[in-house]
Specification:
- 40% of the residues lie in helices and 15% in strands.
- It is α+β, with helices and mostly antiparallel strands.
- It folds into two domains: 174 residues, no CATH class; 147 residues, Beta Polymerase, domain 2 (2-Layer Sandwich).
- It is elongated.
Length: 350
């Protein structure tokens, strides 16, 4: 396979991975939102939260760029179960818990007020192009009658049910897997080949507008990459391609995806969104077949990667074999982060 590791690494850094500045900006909004929530709960005489925590792709550091700025960050709010009671002393329903949080977040400065949704309360920042989702959790505590040990678990207010959920455990699972799987994992589990391949697969899955509501979720993709990861030291291009092949094969056997922490599935057999992911992998991974030809040129290789990711970024990268000695000594000549994003094409709904 033609070596495109330099270009794929550059693409992941500049076009896929969210910059630290963007991460800081989004987290700043989440922190401001926490202050608004605390004040609103006090104002309305509602129970005090015991804490808030960013979770999901933000905490796992797998958030990716989006050329429409359509970002979201999950910032869960936690309450003690005993505090979430109605006037009759019964447990608040999930709907009432979400409405309580939504009411606390109302602010006249918003163009569109926060609203309770099925799994969270959504706070819109439309001018900036993103939103903060606030899932509502309750903390449960029980004591083992034999050992006296205390057990703590969490439930999320989703739909009309309180459902067992542990987003903090999800994040720890992901970081632990990265440390085990990545040849170059950082001590805190925030980077490494495994994380980069997750970002690249998510980048592929979000590369066409028309796919957004049809394809597997980011968390499902993270679990699929984990189950099918093909480590390849120093070659993210080969690791990505083989991982995608492995995912396709796994989904040909079953498109059910097991949750990494809970005793349940992320998606069930017959799930349309995981089936759609496999379909698009199979349709587009064939673009890279040219890389296996002995005479594959730089231009042919770059066009193949452009076709896969639906961009023109790769074709702008210089041929390493034509660099001068000075250029070779200076390192990879790739576009730096912030200089370009995915190319906007007329037929982006393909």
């Amino acid at each position: 396979m033609k070596d495109c590791s330099e270009q794929v690494a550059g693409f992941e850094r500049s076009e896929v991975r969210m910059s630290e500045d963007d991460r800081a900006g989004i987290f700043g909004k989440a922190k401001t939102n926490r202050g608004r929530l605390k004040s609103g709960l006090d104002r309305n005489g509602s129970p005090k939260a015991i804490g808030s925590r960013t979770q999901g792709s933000y905490a796992m550091r797998t958030m990716i760029q989006h050329d429409r700025g359509d970002y979201d960050v999950d910032d869960g709010v936690y309450f003690k179960r005993d505090s979430l009671k109605n006037d009759e002393g019964e447990d608040k329903s999930p709907e009432d818990a979400r409405k309580m949080v939504s009411d606390a977040l109302q602010d006249g400065r918003f163009a569109d007020q926060p609203e309770p949704r099925n799994n969270c309360v959504r706070v819109y920042y439309k001018q900036e192009g993103y939103h903060v989702d606030v899932p509502v959790y309750r903390e449960n505590r029980t004591m083992d009658p034999f050992t006296g040990a205390e057990k703590k678990w969490f439930e999320i207010a989703t739909g009309d049910k309180w459902r067992t959920s542990d987003p903090l455990a999800n994040t720890q699972w992901f970081k632990d897997e990265n440390k085990k799987k990545s040849p170059d994992a950082t001590a805190n589990g925030n980077d490494g080949q495994f994380v980069r391949i997750v970002r690249l697969v998510k980048g592929f899955a979000r590369s066409r507008y028309g796919w957004s509501n049809k394809i597997a979720s980011g968390f499902a993709i993270s679990k699929l990459v984990c189950d099918n990861f093909a480590r390849d030291d120093g070659r993210d291009d080969r690791a990505f391609r083989q991982t995608m092949k492995n995912i396709s094969f796994t989904l040909s056997l079953s498109n059910a995806i097991r949750h990494p922490v809970l005793d349940e599935n992320i998606s069930e057999s017959g799930d349309a969104k995981t089936a759609f992911l496999k379909e698009k992998i199979d349709e587009n991974l064939k673009h890279l077949d040219v890389l296996d030809e002995a005479g594959c040129t730089h231009e042919e290789a770059m066009k193949a990667w452009d076709n896969l990711f639906f961009t023109d970024w790769f074709s702008k990268q210089p041929d390493p074999s034509k660099k001068s000695k000075v250029e070779k000594a200076s390192g990879p000549a790739v576009i730096k982060q912030g200089e370009s994003r995915y190319a906007l094409k007329e037929n982006r709904h393909a």
